[in-house]
Design the sequence.
């Protein structure tokens, strides 16, 4: 997951977030096109694994795991796979989640 809460090349507030009729789409990062899996394809997975490292991920992680937040602003919230989902966080990223 990126600092902005993106996953794959599904970036905040971009058209690729709403693509539901294809498996692959074109994401956009700072005007640069990027090929990406769509939300429905990722959500069909048997297992999804997120990796987030560094303190810079904390603000986005807080929004991704919040009870209410804008999924178009934090696209990782859109990923709710049919199968399992695990998050690997390093100590810096996960600091606010550690008791």
Sequence:
């Amino acid at each position: 997951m990126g600092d902005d809460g993106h996953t794959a090349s599904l970036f905040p507030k971009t058209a690729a977030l709403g693509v539901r009729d294809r498996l692959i789409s074109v994401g956009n990062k700072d005007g640069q096109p990027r090929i990406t899996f769509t939300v429905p394809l990722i959500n069909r997975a048997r297992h999804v694994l997120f990796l987030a490292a560094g303190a810079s991920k904390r603000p986005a992680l807080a929004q991704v795991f919040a009870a209410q937040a804008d999924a178009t602003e934090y696209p990782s919230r859109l990923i709710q796979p049919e199968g399992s989902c695990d998050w690997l966080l390093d100590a810096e990223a996960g600091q606010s989640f550690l008791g």
Notes: Helices lie at 39-43, 58-64. Residues 15-97 form a domain with the Rossmann fold fold (CATH 3.40.50.1360). The longest helix spans residues 58-64.
